Amino acid sequence: MSVPKQPRYEAVPSTTEYDTEADELSVTEQYVVDSNSNGERHGKAATVALPPPQPLSISWVHRCARLVLDLVVALLALLFTYFGLMVRVYDRSLAEHGSVGYQLFQISQYGPTFFPVLFAAIASTSLKSIATWHVQGSKGASIGFLEQCLGSQTISRAFTTQINLRAFNLLAVVIVVIWCISPLGSQASLRVIFIAPTYLGKEITLTALKTFPPSLYSMYDGVTSTFTPISSSLIASIMATRLLDTRNQDIWGNLRFPAIEFFETMGGTDWIDIQNGQNVTYPSLAGMPVGDLPSLGNTSFTLSGSYLSVSCPIFGPTDQYRNFTKDLPSKLKSPSDDPMCAYQVAEIAMNAQLAISNRCYAATVPQGQSLEARRLLWISFSKTSGGYSKSTRAECILTTTYVDTNMTCTGSQFGEASGSTCNPFAVRRTPDPPADRNITVFDEEDLYADVGLLGLMTMLETVFTELDGKENPLLVYFTNPYNAIGSGVTGPIHEVTDRATFELRMAQLLNTIAYISVNSTAVTGNFDATERGLGTLFNITGFTIEEREVIRCNVVWLWLLTFASLFAFVFAVAGAVLRLFTLTPDMLGSTAIAFLDHRLGEVKGSSTWSSDEWVRYHRNAKIRFGDVEPEAEVGRIALAAVKGEAVRSVEKRRYYA
Known about the structure:
Layout: H1 15-20, E1 28-31, E2 46-49, E3 54-55, H2 60-89, H3 100-108, H4 111-135, E4 141-142, H5 143-150, H6 155-164, H7 170-191, E5 193-209, H8 220-225, H9 227-239, H10 241-244, E6 272-273, E7 290-291, E8 298-318, H11 324-327, E9 340-349, E10 352-359, E11 374-384, E12 387-409, E13 422-429, H12 450-463, H13 473-476, H14 493-496, H15 499-518, H16 520-523, E14 537-553, H17 555-580, E15 598-599, H18 611-617, E16 622-627, E17 637-641, E18 655-656
Parallel strand pairs: 15-17
Antiparallel strand pairs: 1-2, 3-18, 4-16, 5-7, 5-14, 6-13, 8-12, 8-14, 9-10, 10-11, 11-12, 12-13, 16-17
Keywords: Membrane, Transmembrane, Transmembrane helix
Transmembrane segments: 67-90, 110-131, 167-185, 556-581
């Protein structure tokens, strides 16, 4: 089958020829091809109309629109630099929901998606613009250069093209480096900002309840009116003894003072560390409430307080049970310098009595002297099948131990220790105690302040009336504290427990009653830190370390993001400028280039070659877009070899066929 030759323009039609009749605007040739014949022409079957020559120009509207679009894309790349600067500005700001810093963090999650898409659009169009601008120049561009630029339109092809072409030159390195900026900027947009915890410290003022103020319930009359809340709180504490053995707070969340005697081997005021998880012994089942705790963070403070200490040099069996109310006179038969004048006696059970001595005068300490400690006497007997045959007697002294305890508490939603988890981490004896150790809570108000406590313990007998052989819980507590309520006879105290345990459990009972007596409402979970009229509150200075989430800026990734963003911006602007000054039609990278005339006489090869083979064999051959008919009145734009036919650069507004 013969193929007709392409018709060529012999002369430029005049303007009048194109204006007079539309059908004569182009030169036409008509061919008829019969497939059943061997390429012979039979007649008119189709008409192919060639377009008329057109001037080479692009309207400014089109150019400006394209330039605006290119600049918008470039500015989008610049937004990543602005984003990085904003992250730097809000570095270390709180990452609160709704804050600018937190919104920046949320925006960063989209960076790895948006940046590579934007960069691919910029890099591919700019590489194409570079290739097109070079190929229209007077020196042209090598085939290898064009293929490296046009074949690197994606990040994967940027690598495979260089490998397939075996192009290990500077241009290949530059193209690969350019495309490597895409994942670098993508990761930088994500990693430039992160949320990290920080610790903010500040001083705060806490409010606590005094351990031993002048007791509101010291006198018997006061005790009778508050018996119910105190007794019920005491019973609740005794029932929770097993739980309280491993807790630093009582059942209402109040803070308990450690018994320093079980930590120290000798006296002194040095701090003794309490290890985390270490078993701590407490001299009271109840603690003291602390208020005004912040809702967030960990608060450290030093809680100062005191507790009654019991030391019993005489502890053991006694031959017979003595009735204190009969055997102890109101005035002791003792030397005239004995400061103890009488004993207050409480029958806390049918088979147990407790007596505390009273002073003969006010508890004032002469200069350079110390008061004598109050005395505590205890006697109890156990029930046996043969009668009341075994009795336990203890002669003790009462003193006050002043301690400072370093505490740390977590944030409290309610502002009180009851809503927090608190732990002691160090304890010491108070270096400057407010009073002599021999002055106890019973000496704070008057000489007979122990009447209230003993009266309360006596009244408890009415609550703990023996039923079906059950013992009084106050008595059972010494031998079986975990089952003090509802337990039966456990034997004589001196046979079941040792002296140190008896001293501790006696102190726990006395201190629990004394603490609750300060303000039973406050101790049992209704602490009001603003109720200062009673004189039972004091302030503590604490230090809160609050863990807050803040926005952090990674400076290294910020520099990388800025570099990637600015490079993308400059690359986009460069491509836009080159497109603005490019005159030749945009044909590279499109199959439409196959319809373009060409003058590549010296570029020859095999029809079996692949595209990569063509490029490899002719990589150094230079070609250009130009006017291959510069002498004719109507030019023709074609792809031509630089060393072939005479090729001239295209001219603006010249007519081309």
